[in-house]
Specification:
30% strand; 23% helix; single chain; alpha+beta; 366 residues; 4-stranded antiparallel beta sheet; 17 strands
């Protein structure tokens, strides 16, 4: 609410009077984060191969964080489920079956999520340059992973983009703008643009396109190469148009960059890219555009581009953070690239004959 002014004057004259008198200018109240509540169902189905001796399943469960409240979490499964944390601290469900019988194993998790919008502080004046002590304490968020490269090429490119800048907020924004200027989200034109299957820095940089994981692999590579600790968050969008529908709502990811004094700065450069310029919505891209935006696409919008640097809509659930995950108990087939859905091994080898259906119903919104 604006402070009332008991007289009517032209604004320029009123401003001059207020400045002369030393009065404070009227300011809006701080924006309050939006909030929404959802009933969520996540159903996993694994096809059991013949002659399998050991079937091991690790599946994503919702993560509690500052913005998320998880209630009424339940899992229905034909075998015992145990819970542990992976190498990045994500809570993970686990099931192990010796000499599995039947054609399919189904796991159904349900829960209530209340999620709050992130309204971040992106004022460069509120932070300071990172120190070597900062970077040493956050070394895990500066190192490369299998598909998130930190090498001489990436360091040279990051240095070219940020120049002599050492303010973390300004550095992060320069990398954000460069990515928007140089990479194009594949959903805009799926006949011409393609995504990788693994979320790859190298692929995204070479082809100048990709999906959310390609985008954010590249952004994370640039940030880490510039000395900014960063990490990828995997979740799903909770779009109004799929509310209550029996359709898998897929997954999405975004990025957090560590900024001294301001903690983690959240951004989604992939979704922001959709709003950079007008995209013709047609029968080739309409469904993909819908799956990729939390609130739907209504044309180019510079405010949305700015919004997704430091802010994040409330229509999301978090499944995990990080890449090259080590499970507990340990998997046998090497690092798990990411856990947005599930990871399965049969007799010690990675196995991908499974499905996941993620559905939801909004029950409350503020």
């Amino acid at each position: 609410m604006r402070r009332s002014i008991p007289w009517r004057l032209p604004f320029s004259l009123m401003l001059g009077v207020m400045l002369i008198m030393g009065a404070a200018l009227p300011t809006p109240e701080a924006a309050q984060p939006k909030q929404a509540t959802f009933e969520i169902t996540n159903t996993f189905a694994v096809t059991v191969p013949k002659q399998a001796q050991t079937l091991r399943i690790w599946f994503a469960v919702p993560q509690d964080d500052v913005e998320s409240t998880i209630e009424n979490f339940k899992v229905e499964a034909p075998y015992e489920v145990r819970y542990s944390t992976d190498s990045e601290g994500n809570r993970v469900g686990y099931m192990e079956i010796q000499q599995p019988k039947g054609e399919q194993v189904t796991i159904r998790e349900t829960f209530t999520l209340t999620r709050r919008e992130i309204l971040g502080n992106v004022d460069p004046a509120q932070t300071r340059p990172l120190t070597e002590a900062d970077r040493a304490s956050m070394a895990n968020d500066l190192k490369p992973s299998t598909y998130v490269l930190v090498n001489d090429e990436m360091k040279a490119l990051a240095a070219q983009i940020v120049g002599d800048e050492d303010n973390p907020v300004t550095m992060a924004r320069k990398l954000y703008d460069w990515t928007l200027d140089n990479i194009e989200y594949w959903v805009k034109d799926p006949e011409r643009l393609k995504a990788s299957s693994v979320g790859s820095t190298e692929y995204c940089l070479r082809t100048k396109t990709g999906n959310c994981t390609d985008f954010h692999a590249l952004y994370t590579s640039l940030a880490r190469s510039a000395g900014l600790p960063s990490r990828i968050v995997y979740g799903s969008l909770l779009k109004p148009t799929l509310n209550g529908m029996d359709v898998d709502a897929s997954y999405h990811c975004w990025v957090q960059v560590y900024v001294p004094n301001l903690d983690w700065l959240t951004l989604d450069v992939a979704v922001a890219d959709i709003y950079v310029s007008g995209v013709e919505v047609n029968d080739k891209n309409a469904k993909l555009m819908e799956l990729t935006t939390a609130m739907g696409y209504k044309g180019a919008d510079s405010k949305m581009v700015d919004y997704y640097f430091g802010n994040l809509d409330e229509r999301r659930v978090v499944w995990s953070v990080g890449r090259d995950l080590q499970m507990d108990p340990a998997q046998e087939a090497g690092p798990v690239n990411a856990l947005s859905k599930m990871y399965v091994e049969v007799d010690g080898k990675a196995y991908d004959d499974w499905t996941r259906k993620f559905t939801y119903k909004e029950v409350q919104a503020h």
